[in-house]
Each structure stands twice: as structure tokens, then as C-alpha cells.
Amino acid sequence: MHDxxxxxxxTQCVHAGFEPDGTGAVVTPIYQTSTFSFRDAxxxxxxxxxxxxxxxxTRLGNPTIRACERAVAILEGGHDGIACASGMAAIHxxxxxxxxxxxxxxxxxxxxxxxQTLLTGVMSRFGVESSVVDTADLDAxxxxxxxxxxxxxxxxxxxxxxxVSDLAAIAEIAQGGGxxxxxxxxxxxxxxxxxxxxxxxxxxxxxxxxxxxxxxxVAGMIVAKxxxxxxxxxxxxxxxxxxxxxxxxxxxxxxxxxxALRMERHCANAGRVARFLETHPKVAKVxxxxxPSHPQHELAKRQMRGGGGVVSxxxxxxxxxxxxxxxxxxxxxLAVSLGGVETLIEHPAxxxxxxxxxxxxxxxxxxxxxxxxxxxxxxxxxxxxxLEQGLAKT
Length: 394
Ligand code: LCS
Description:
The protein is an alpha/beta fold. It contains 15 helices and 12 strands. The N and C termini lie far apart (53 Å). Residues 86-88, 112, 115, 155, 159, 184, 186-187, 206, 208, 218, 220, 336-338, 352 line the site of ligand LCS.
């Protein structure tokens, strides 16, 4: 579909990225090959020089991977996509492409734990300074900007307390200070939020989550808004080497076809679970952007088209009650990750956000007793009944 950008996102999910390969195949086949033969020596040399279009080697490009890259780029409204082996590979490539020794980066305090650890614990070894701030607070972002700030990295809604940051305002602050804005859009997917339309320069995803949606692939994606940023990042990516496998790219492209449908159900179910939890006497606090009690609810309504599929909450009985709940659920599965069709429950402080350490969690406002649920697409009343029987045991 060469003109997929004209269509509604619901239609783009089904068709974007596909280009006929001449066989009549209606989906892009799995080109499970590491390398591509050249017609002759000059053809090979021409491909390497960039004078000819074609495939060389799967780390540098592959038709199945290209289909997935085009699809996500169209959904995000960006120039092109760079598919990666994981969300972390996408974030690493972003940091390594947009930062160099002597630069400074600003990062949301509420992010997936390893993102922050990569910046403060690994990029720091290569001479990159960083400030971790509450990006929901625009003054904190303004104060954190320095003359050498080259990147502002925002995750919104942020994992796991669902803090929402104002992307249009942060794009102005970042670009006004000579920095690029990169946004981790994993929690919303382009169906609920399009950061590039709001002024961001780069979007990253863990496609392990909603984009693939079936808990059977680990993958990531980078989408740059401009051809220049795409080319610069792709060059670094080719050297770093964190490429996706063609089979995984195929599976993500298949998952994308139902993304709009799945997000509708994730949002409806998560909204019902959040409202149920908010009225439950054993629940002290619920975080969900679509609840009027969420501190950035009005901003979320402006910036997003739905609250997403993730809810987190604190029990009045603290972590011990949380453990009892997690050990008592039957339909929900006790596992990390999120964004799949099945409902998952986990404990951020000892699992997904353990690597940050207690102090960083405290600074980010991530309570030690917080429980996170990725609400799947099962029947909402059956998810709620499962949580209800688990809460009764606490
Ligand atoms: N960005 C966000 C917002 C994430 O939630 C994750 C993983 C990543 C990036 C990294 O992606 P990966 O390399 O795993 O594909 N989040 C996880 C979580 O909350 N539980 O398990 C993984």
C-alpha cells in the first residue's frame, strides 16, 4: 500500500508497510536469510556504495524487517523506522546516536528501570552526563537544561506509576535549548498518542509490548521524524548491531494488524479495572491516566486518545498484602512485561524497577508496595472477579 499515510490509523494497522514482492503473496513473507546474493561483483560493489537499491545482509536490511519498519513509521507519522532486537537496543541506539562524550541528557524519573540505569550507569562511562527529573513538572525540565544538553528523553505515561508529561511543552523547552526530544511511546502505542505530531524528534518503542501484543517476541523500534535523523541513527545502528530477526519482524507485523482493535479493548478493560480498584476498601491508591483522580488527567485527555492498558495501585496493607494478592490470582499471571493479550501482574520494586535501586525509586515516587497490572483483552468482569477473590485473601 504505497499511499498508506492517507488512511485512518485503524486501516493503516491492517495494510501499512506491505509492498508486493511479485509473487502475489498478500502478506510480506519471512525472508529467513542472513545474506543476499549479488548478480555480479559490480552489483555488490554498487550496493555497498549506496548507488544501487537492494539487500546486502540482514543486519543492514531485509524485506520482512523493512515491512515492519515502514508500518510503524507510518503509524507514528515519522520518516522511517529502525527495527531493533529489543526495546533496550532501540534506546541504546538512540542514546549512542544522539549523545557523545561531554554532552548532557535529561531523562524522566518515572521510566522503565533499565532505561535510567543505561543512562546513569553505562552512558556515564562514555562521558555522558545526565539529570533525572520529574518531567511531569515543566519547571523541573527547564531547570535541568544546560548549555550542553543534547537530548531530553521522556517516557509518558511513565512505567510504573503512569506519570504523564506534556510533550508539546517539553518539545519547545528541549528544542529551544538546542536538544532533541526522544519519547518512549511503549505504553500508548501510536493508536493512543503520536509524539512526533506533538513536536518530538524521535519515538522509541519496546515492540515486545502492545505493538506485537502477543507476549511471544522481544523487539524494539526507533522512528525519527526527519530523513537526516533517520540516516544518522541508522548509520550508528548498523555498527552497534542490535538488529531484529526476520521471524520476529514478521510476528510484529502480524500483531500490528489488530493493534487498533486490541488498544480499544485494553483501554475499556483497564478503565473498568481502575474504577473497580478505586472503590475497593483494601486499595489505598490507583494510578491510571483516565481516572479523574490522576494528577495529570486533563493533560492526558488532551494528549492521548485513551488511558492505555496498564494500571498500578497500592494496597492499604502494603507490600505484604500485595504479595498475597499476586500469589492468589488465578486468571491473571504473575509475570513482568505488559501489553499482551493476557493480563499480567507484577511488583515493580522487586522486579521491573529493581535495577534502579531504592533511592532512585523513592526520588521517582515509586512506592515499594506498588503492584502493576497489564490488563489484557479477556472479559473485564472475569479479570475483576479474579482480582476481587485475590484481594479478599489479603
Ligand atoms: N520501554 C518501556 C516503557 C518498557 O516498559 C520496556 C520494558 C522497555 C522500554 C524495554 O523493552 P525490551 O528491551 O524489554 O523490549 N518493560 C518491561 C516491563 O515493564 N516489564 O518487563 C519488561
